[in-house]
Amino acid sequence: MNVETAKETPRRFEIFIDGDPTPKARPRFCRRGNYVETYKKRGEQAIEDEFRYRAKEQLKKQGLRLPAPKHVAISISFECVFAIPKSYTKKKRAELLGREHTNKPDLDNLLKFYIDGLNGIAYSDDSQIARYGEACKLWGEEPRTRIIIDIL
Questions:
Q1: Is the distance from CB of 75 to CB of 122 less than 8 angstroms?
Q2: Around 14, how many Cα atoms within 13 Å sit in the side-chain half-sphere?
Q3: Which has fewest Cβ within 10 Å: 57, 84, 113, 124?
Q4: Which band of pLDDT confidence, cut at 50, 70 and 90, is reported for residue 66?
């Protein structure tokens, strides 16, 4: 086979995070004398650290050399599934199952949390993301987030 015509097939890596999808929170500000500082709410850093740890472990098991080299382009897709409230009737639960979730949090805040969290783990810098695949918020029985990373 000719080396120039041989095209390497993209490698696919998947991350599954159980539990409610997490949005990126807005930074908080406080005034200290003549200076303004930014900070995160209590517990936010722990949530980010937990995601980073779980993502890193799953990617290592799948054989991704962490992080992907800077010259490598990445495609990334997201599926964020929210649990249907238990208080909903069986009829309403059946109607919502698999349909789009149009309540808060916003999709862009969800994506920002996961993209920022994978920075330095799945890729060296988020500028490597050359393509976004599908990104959706859905209703489901069990809350979870699925992230698909394709090395192009």
A1: no
A2: 5
A3: 57
A4: confident
